[in-house]
Amino acid sequence: MDTQLITMREALNQAMVEEMERDSTVFLMGEEVGAYNGAYKVSQGMLERFGPLRVVDTPISENGFAGLAVGAAMTGLRPIVEFMSFNFALVAMDQIVSNAAKTLYMSGGQFPIPMVMRGPGGPAARVSAQHSNSLESLFAYFPGLMVVMPSTPADAKGLLKTAIRNDNPIVFIENELLYGVAGDVPKGEFLLPIGSAEVKREGRDVTVVAHSRMNHMLRSAEAEFLKAGIDLELIDPRTIKPLYIETIARSVRKTHRAVIVEEGHRFAGVGAEIADRVYTACFDDLDAPVVRVTATENPLPYAKNLEAASLPDVAQAIQACKAVLYRA
Amino acid sequence: MDTQLITMREALNQAMVEEMERDSTVFLMGEEVGAYNGAYKVSQGMLERFGPLRVVDTPISENGFAGLAVGAAMTGLRPIVEFMSFNFALVAMDQIVSNAAKTLYMSGGQFPIPMVMRGPGGPAARVSAQHSNSLESLFAYFPGLMVVMPSTPADAKGLLKTAIRNDNPIVFIENELLYGVAGDVPKGEFLLPIGSAEVKREGRDVTVVAHSRMNHMLRSAEAEFLKAGIDLELIDPRTIKPLYIETIARSVRKTHRAVIVEEGHRFAGVGAEIADRVYTACFDDLDAPVVRVTATENPLPYAKNLEAASLPDVAQAIQACKAVLYRA
Amino acid sequence: MAPAAALAPKQKVRQVEVHPVLSRSTLTPRQKRVVDTLGQEKLVAMYRQMVLIRSFEQRCEQMYQQRKIAGFLHLYMGQEALGVGFLNAARPDDYVATSYRDHGIALARGVTPEACMAELFGRVDGCSRGKGGSMHFFSREKNLLGGHGIVGGQIPVGLGAAFRARYLGTDQVSLVLMGDGAVAEGTFHECLNIAALWKLPALFVIENNQYGMGTAVSRALSVRDLTLKAPGYGIEGVTVDGMNLLDCYAVMEDAIARRRKSPSPILIEAKTYRFRGHSISDPGTYRRKDEVEQYQRVDPISQIKNLLDQLGWLGEADAKTLEKEVRQQIGKAAEFADASPEPDLSEVSQHVYA
Amino acid sequence: MAPAAALAPKQKVRQVEVHPVLSRSTLTPRQKRVVDTLGQEKLVAMYRQMVLIRSFEQRCEQMYQQRKIAGFLHLYMGQEALGVGFLNAARPDDYVATSYRDHGIALARGVTPEACMAELFGRVDGCSRGKGGSMHFFSREKNLLGGHGIVGGQIPVGLGAAFRARYLGTDQVSLVLMGDGAVAEGTFHECLNIAALWKLPALFVIENNQYGMGTAVSRALSVRDLTLKAPGYGIEGVTVDGMNLLDCYAVMEDAIARRRKSPSPILIEAKTYRFRGHSISDPGTYRRKDEVEQYQRVDPISQIKNLLDQLGWLGEADAKTLEKEVRQQIGKAAEFADASPEPDLSEVSQHVYA
Ligand SMILES: Cc1ncc(C[n+]2csc(CCOP(=O)(O)OP(=O)(O)O)c2C)c(N)n1
Ligand SMILES: Cc1ncc(C[n+]2csc(CCOP(=O)(O)OP(=O)(O)O)c2C)c(N)n1
Ligand SMILES: [Mg+2]
Ligand SMILES: [Mg+2]
Fold it and tell me: What pTM, to 2 d.p., does this model score?
């Protein structure tokens, strides 16, 4: 397939542009998405291309415009809502949960909500407690929502295009620190199914499951793992919900060991669900309890040393692998 | 200890009344808590007793008054915020997460938030999708919050009194269907530590962990379990966060089997966290994978038969026990 | 401690709004115009709708006692003129979103009593296949966007339909109904600002029935005249007698007509009253008997009944017949609902995802 | 498809607000009164505060380039008159809550430049022990309730402090500052209603610097005069020239004085302008150079500087000395911050729970 080397930012932009070219009912709405070209420039050039009716700058009223998008979706449009960051989706939580997630069901199937909510999630760099939430487990908890979190430009394009064509409300969580990361991305039409995990690196020793920036971080740390004598098999669920556990289970049946790395908090995080499913699917195959590497149990502090101490890193992942390998 | 036979509703009322008598900075605020004596009559008689300044009827502005309470707590008061139901806390999610949970940390320890947010959570009877959320896992996810969920009148009184004296923001989730349930409750001063699970029934065969209404349901089904030949050990975590895992682990080391029953959804629910901790603490003691009994993965439907099919019941719990006992 | 001084004004016996009773001899020019434009057939049809709603709600009360209906049940008695007057001024292809107090709105919108009653019984022929219940009536065919249980939650949804009209360049409008209590929610503010800023054809209707549950408006909102909020958004605000069918129709008819030509929002406050408690489980003891009676004296239905009689458009006898017909219709609806099966158990997992 | 017609008005070269420049000869009676009541010492002190804020922010820009400061950094240049004027009219025991654009507010409130700079450096001697950063300045000692990163999130918190005053029967007031963009959030509406309903001593201040990030107010709010919202809550609304120290002080002084006697909220819109981009990473290209220049001509600091000169209260030479002193003070603050240690690693898990 004909590919191009572009950043995650460009891949996301391409996905939106292609889908808006393809379907005139698709529009983008959010704070600063238009004239400003996006707080993180993901919507670069889109206002110019599609005009102010399809690339809509909103006031700072998240609950209002998220719900507006639900109503637009109920009446035949296909909104893409950009949250400048998902931290601000907390203000819109009610419309996302009470309406976006439940309307199809409450209406007995009459009103699908073809709607994508996207934007950066997770900690960025030194932006402190209120701007560093990882909220994927919250959204994934609610039946009716799907949660997608790509870690490569190609996955980002393929999954976002699919998400925009999907008839369900989809929470599409990007990562600010990955926007600038480049990778080979197929040109033009390229769709990835929602609910397909991918083995990003094959290995024999231990199955490591990580999504979004954590997967990128571990992918880039291959050498360190080898140096530590660990031949890891790295899996990216890519979509948190639906979670395709089979890819993970197959790997664990091979390695007999599993480590889950996530940037969010531990309590009832995505990793807790993955661990539960791994144990259930591979109870007799596991040679060691699953080890979870997560953020520490505190709001993210600003101080450089405290922030670093709060977030999972490669060293901790390697430690965890050693632990399940009983080498620690 | 001198006890009285009262309902959960009365126990909660007593806890609030006693603490408000004890400390004039404690006040109750919420929709219909005053003149109406509470939508579920939990605050019966309190307006008359304490006056409109300490029992405050609010407009329907959850994010506004939840945040108001945070500000009041920062400046020396000890608010009790009643959410008419926790479904409406979704509208206040931002103030709960961004401010109540994080302010102490963000301020470097300068501003504790002694605040209790209470009200009924979980499905009631036929109130459909938007009024039946179990949100404990969402709140428990965030460091800074504590989550308490009593299943008996005595626990309700002892834990609510402690919560009101505690200097942290505490999410205290009651259950509408338990308000009328009566039990023996110590008179007067009675405090239960936050973070102490309790074995509600001792047994040899299998450890069953359940909170809130699910614990009550199973407690009342002892006969059915015995009839099924199951001698269950029933544990109520009582506080979801902090979660006192030792009580559960000790039991699992004895029974070698664990079943977790919760009324909420499965994905990253509280049970996922409990399971993860049980596996980690008791990996070599478990004779079978932990089985989770949860609500089905759909918004709660109104139709009687569909609602029943969506929620966990005794039969499913017994099935789960048989499964971990390899009797199924 | 400071003295326990009340924060909000105490709930005293409320000044009852003045609702002049309709009578042929005292019709205002506007009311005359409405009578003429509607004509006998349409006006009687609208009267029939009001009677239908009233009888439907009465039947709901019985059915609830008989446990055929469960959960929350919020009745519409007293507010019929509002639902019928406003919705009849709209076109079938316009959109409507409302709160959980949605029976009257759905019926006025043309959803059949059969589908409504079946929904309340939790049966598969219900307007939401029995999955929504009383608070969540939906109808794609009638452009009814629900039926929302979260106070203020329907406002952004209704706004979305107005956005769609603007986006596609149609002349449709969106009726966004809410209770007085919803005015205190942030969504009210966010949506009025967006609608005004983008000139969206959203008609925001406050069904001011004087109470949000047990709380009188004066204890929930800092202004008595809710249209005072309109200038804060630079939009038009109108107050209307919600007990008066003709006025409700006139106001909405005019408001919509102007917006078909050039879209923009409007805030309409309709002063009305609910004759029952907040929900079936609420005795409504916070309202004095004489207050309720004063409003019953301006019952929206008897007002029109009298007028029709005075106009010679519907005499005593015909009125009786009409009521009888409606009662029968409701009876049939209840039978239909009873006969309708529960949804198949497989539906538990259907409609979670499209 | 409909033509891609703009929804909101296009962002054209904005009508610059008229900000008459202060001059001794043209002082209004109100300004005269302020000058007299403040007197030389206090007025010079307030001028010094403004200069301190300006120099502090300039140093921040350098420190950010040198990577001593990281994360988001929102500067206060241009808005000094507002912070200094308003806060000096309040008592130390009053409460203040603001947004992430909080450096100027903290300094005007008396938080030391040392504590502020140390916070920005992420050091343990910072006003939030280095845990909050630029957006989250807190001070229990100064009754500064933050420093909030969620737009509109500080409004309920500030309201809570006003509630406390009412609850305890004290005569304290609460200053609740927000940007123009925050006016579109639901919290604004919910809190103004509650404050008005309960007569809470909350002074809601809109720092209208004409933009929310890259969005001109005209593209975010449907009315140009934001005090138009006050009548919708039945409260007082006042507009003030936010580039003018004397007017800001006068308005707040009067507003507070009246509320100490009988509590009630007020909505104050201060028209101001930020001289820099939204945050350090924003070039601010959405604003035309001449627009920025027009506001620089009414720089709040030079206005007072000139006035003090005309009054003979601070001549050229003294002014130079003052500026030099301030620069030294800031230098010391930076050295202090540099010398302050990072928080001990054990602090990661401290202050999560009390
Ligand atoms: C966000 C939210 N808060 C609280 C409730 C509980 N509740 C249901 S109806 C109601 C009163 C609403 O009154 P109003 O808006 O006047 O509508 P009415 O019932 O009078 O038609 C309340 C508080 C809710 N459903 N949603
Ligand atoms: C709820 C929420 N939405 C969006 C943002 C991102 N954001 C940060 S500042 C800002 C603009 C705010 O403008 P304004 O209120 O005028 O304050 P100013 O920056 O001009 O002082 C936005 C959109 C946020 N922090 N919180
Ligand atoms: Mg009402
Ligand atoms: Mg601004």
Answer: 0.98
